[in-house]
Structure formats: C-alpha cells, structure tokens
Amino acid sequence: MSRLPLPLLLLAVLPFAASAAAPGKACDDARTQFELNECAAAEATAADAELNAVYRQVMQKLQGQQVAIDKLRAAQRLWIPLRDADIEARYPVGKDEDPRVLYGSMYPMLYSANKAELTRKRTQWLRTTFLDRAEGEL
Description:
Strand content: under 5%
Order of helices and strands: HHHHH
CATH topology: Substrate Binding Domain Of Dnak, Chain:A, Domain 2
Radius of gyration: 18 Å
Distance between the termini: 45 Å
CATH architecture: Up-down Bundle
Largest sheet: none
Number of domains: 1
Shape: elongated
C-alpha cells in the first residue's frame, strides 16, 4: 500500500493536530507530544462519557417503546465499530506495521481527536433526533 510522503502527511493532519488541543483548557498548557496525546485521549474519553449520558437520556425518553429501544440499541452497537473502522480507514495500518512508524508520534493524538470528533457528532445526532424535537414532530 502506498503511503503519503511525510511532508504531505503532516499537511493533511495539521488541522486535526490543532483541533486535538483546542477543546479543553488543560490542553492549552500541553508542551510535548506526549502531553498532547494524553490531552486528546482525555477529550475522547470525555466525548464518550457525554455520548453515554445522552444515550441513557434517550433510552429513558423511549421508556415503554420496546421496539424503538431495541432498534436504537442495535444501531448504537453497530455505530461504535463503524466509528472505529472509519478512523482505521483514515489511518490504515497493516497487520505487521506500527502506526507510530507510519504516522509518527502524533498518531495517538490524531486517533483520539478523530474519535472525539465522530463521537461528538453522534452525540449531537442523538440529542437532535430524540431529545430536542417537539412531541409529535417527525
């Protein structure tokens, strides 16, 4: 599989590198790649916690609608591997390849930043679709 030359790869990922540190104030003080990686991982964990909270709210709102609950539960179980597969497609790594060799020391930050971004989008979709719409609105 052909890979982007490192200078082109860096240009392609710089917007995500910047966004990984942007959401939280704790990231403003990050000085090393390790700190940026840790910060991005914390952002992904926070995004996942928010997703879980919104998901629980939606499930509670759907209480008594077993078909809707079953369908949403199935969709969520499919969405999680889809999110992860989308990230892996963005940063492909072969079976015997090391992602840090292919993408550098910023790979954990990029992976986590993408995970946080996709998770926040899913959270927003759940919130908009199930919590923010008026009763009877289709």
